[in-house]
Design a protein that fits this description.
Length: 266
């Protein structure tokens, strides 16, 4: 069985390749727009290609049985049609439900005629690094909703699930809703970081408008959507699922992630 990992030099794609190798896969092809930047084990075949440049894909798809599909909205319909033409039998896609921007990926895969497994995720634990500069400079985080709760997931857990599904059986037609193993509030998240770096950190509650204004230069109109989402999860926090642990045997807690990444916040 030959497995292709697209977006193999992206954050999650790189981890998928590594987990496949760790799980014993010996026929892995990694797709990268910059093969010269890769440093995969020698048993991994690295080929040049880019999801946003479908003309680069037919050769990479040749002989592939299963594929991890990194999210690329602009070209997904053409990409999955090429996968079908190449005889790929199973696509494991990183996408999202109808409330996310990534749902069109799942829809395109559904319609492709190729067997599929959807991996749906919410917020990544790595998003906490958005606080890093503020924490390093002031020891504070200024946000409006300290009790907003969700269940962030580590990127490495997503990759481990993807590798497990690609190598396993019984996953065709399944949609896996992936979260971290616990629901935590924004304030609790900050305290985990404080413990990890050995420094007192303070959550300063500010009006929503202050955070929106801070985020707008980088996020544009999405800043308001993001802050409204924080507000919604005060009374309706995201419910954690056990899917990651069920599929792979364990899931990363935010405290564990914070300890492993403490230097980013010091």
């Amino acid at each position: 069985m030959k497995i292709l990992v697209t977006g193999a030099t992206g954050n999650i794609g790189r981890m998928v390749v590594n987990h496949l190798v760790d799980l014993g896969a010996d026929n892995v092809r990694a797709l990268s727009n910059h093969p010269e930047r890769t440093a995969f084990p020698p048993e991994v075949e690295v080929v040049k290609g880019y999801l946003k440049r479908p003309s680069s894909l037919p050769a990479a798809f040749e002989g592939i049985d299963r594929m991890y599909l990194a999210p690329s909205l602009e070209t997904v319909t053409e990409v999955v049609d090429l996968a079908r033409q190449a005889g790929i039998e199973h696509i494991v896609d990183l996408s999202g439900d109808e409330n996310t921007n990534w749902h069109p990926i799942a829809q395109a895969v559904d319609k492709s005629g190729v067997g599929w497994t959807h991996l749906w995720t919410g917020e990544f634990m790595e998003n906490a690094t958005d606080w890093a500069e503020e924490i390093r400079a002031t020891g504070e985080v200024r946000e409006p909703y300290p009790s907003s709760g969700n269940a962030p997931i580590a990127m490495d857990d997503i990759a481990r699930v993807a590798a497990t599904v690609l190598l396993g059986s019984g996953h065709l037609g399944m949609t896996y809703n992936l979260t971290g193993p616990e629901t935590i509030t924004r304030a609790e998240r900050l305290q985990h970081l404080a413990k990890a770096i050995g420094r007192d950190l303070t959550f300063v509650t500010v009006p929503p408008e202050e955070l929106i204004a801070l985020l707008e230069p980088a996020m544009g109109d999405y800043a308001g959507y993001f802050v409204n989402g924080l507000a919604a999860r005060v009374d309706s926090p995201q419910v954690a699922t056990s899917t990651v642990a069920d599929l792979t045997g364990h899931a990363t807690t935010f405290a564990t992630w914070a300890a492993a990444n403490a230097d980013l916040f010091r």
